[in-house]
Amino acid sequence: MPVIETAVLSKYYGETRALDGVSMTVEPGEAFGFLGPNGAGKTTLIRVLTDLLHPSSGSATVFGLDTRAESAAIRARLGNLPGDYAYDPRLTGREIVSFFAELRGLSGLGRAPQLAERFEADLDRRLGELSRGNRQKIGLIQAAFHDPELLLLDEPTASLDPLMQEEFLAFVAEQRDRGVTVFFSSHELDEIERACDRVAIVREGSLVAVEDVAEVTSRSFKHVRLEFAEPVDPDEFRRIQGVSDLEQAGARITFKAAGDLDAVVKAAAAHTVSDIELTRPTLEEVVLTYYGRAGRR
Amino acid sequence: MSFAASPPAARRSAAAAPPPRLASLRALLRRGLRDDRYVPLIWGGALGVFSFLIIFTWPSIEDSVGELVRSYPEGLKQAFGIEQLDTVEAYFDAEMLSLIVPLAVAFLAVRTVARAIPGAEEEAWLDTLLTTPLSRASLVAGAFLVTAALTALVLALTAALTLIAGLLSGTDPAAAVIGRGLANVWPLAMFFAGLATLLAGRLHSASAVTAIASGVLVAMYLIDVVGKVSDSFEPLRWASAFKYYGSAVRDGIDPVAFIGLTLAAAALAALGALLLERRDIVA
């Protein structure tokens, strides 16, 4: 039985379409990425799954339970981390976790102390005294202290520093390895690539594709910029399989390279290279390149 | 540090179920009272000090106040339920319980509910709170119980300071009479807490809930006052909660009105919970 299943799920705010006929499943123990630009409907889906929002049409189940009729039973088994964690700024992290433990019918702080140590979070300072990143750490602890079966993470790393982002992604991988199902919403392809097994790509409320992450990344391309000591023949690179959109300006050539870069590196090595720059495409570029402006491939 | 050695969560928590509703309510009540622990001191302290001054000044004005009341227009006396201010209890009733205490405590009740539901929604705290197994009905019940406790504590502190003033000034107001006068404010305040809960079931803004509920509070007060002096407005008084408030100092607590207002408050809150259940939570 899938952990999450949506069937033609739609959510409208008046005339505005936030989710449009989304159908997908998330299997037990998988880390599932939900990738899309800001405003694509990622947060809306998580809010529907947690029953904060009610679907306009269609249905959603979590653990086989209906998100409308059996919401409390679902929420007892999940942990949710919003993108910008907020709670009463007068409370310390410890007070928050203790209160939420009571609401979950648990005694003690569960694994909150270990999580706090791992993420270097201060449980004894008031939330209002913490930076956004440190508040987010408290949010993470509050989402995971009770060792839930399902973790819903809505752009969780947005306010974390790079080191903490690394630690967080490692944590997600560990949870997946332990059998926890992770639903990871992000607009960063790189993050999804590192944390997830499968990915759903969403744009303007519609599901564009659901694929294995490895498949998406293997098809993904890089922007390549090569600076040579003197101008070179661009056709040497244009001939390489996977190279497209090549442009030359003096001793500099730029192009997109899909797949293996070995041939590009070997071709460049035949000349004197003064600089190389490889950059990943933005999410919007990936979606537009592989899934078309209209959405579906 | 790694958690990889622990057994899979799926196996351990497969039977996780929402905690009993009573446990959630207890947690909400404890948290709410702790978070608002200064409210009874601030509101009860302010009203108590005011009451203290009223009682304390009674001996010095006792003789002249009878004369003053006799000079009041009949309509004014009728409107504010002033008969004879010949006792310290009657003076306390006229000065504190006919206007200041009921309006202040009812406003506190409205404000407490507005902060706990739409206020928390605006701050995105409900996004966090309602992704635990807490039901929206429990959230409403918790806010209502916290309000009930806070208003009761404010009234109790006011009563205590009033009686201390009586002891210090030698006026010795009857504790039972002062107590029943202040206790009678509680169902009235809870009625407006119920109204605020009903509004919170539809509205996403704490300011809107506070403004509308406070507006109704003032309007009901005015309807009652005007209805007392004007025969043409008298039939409208049934629609004002203040009609059922009366004067417990003079007449004792009317159990029907006391229970009726309390039940009306609970019914409004229940309706608010139903509406909240049906609407989206927006941050």
Question: pLDDT under 50 segments of chain A (min length 5)?
Answer: none
Ends apart, CA distance between termini of chain A: 28 Å
- Helices and strands of chain B, in N-to-C order? HHHHHHHHHHHHH
- Coarse shape of chain B: globular
Supply the helix-strand structural class of chain A: alpha/beta
Q: Give the amount of beta strand of chain A, in percent.
A: 25-35%
The radius of gyration of chain A is 22 Å
Uncertain stretches of 5 or more adjacent residues of chain B: 1-11
Strand order of the largest sheet of chain A: 6-7-8-3-9-10
The share of residues in extended strands of chain B comes to under 5%
The overall pLDDT of chain A, averaged over residues, is: 91
What oligomeric state best describes the polypeptide chains here?
A: heterodimer
Number of helices of chain B: 13
Number of helices of chain A: 11
Rounded mean pLDDT of chain B is: 90
Tell the overall outline of chain A. Answer: globular
The N- to C-terminal Cα distance of chain B equals: 35 Å
Class computed from helices, strands and strand pairing of chain B: mainly alpha
Helix proportion of residues of chain B, in percent?
A: over 70%
Largest sheet of chain B: none
Secondary structure tally: strands of chain A: 14
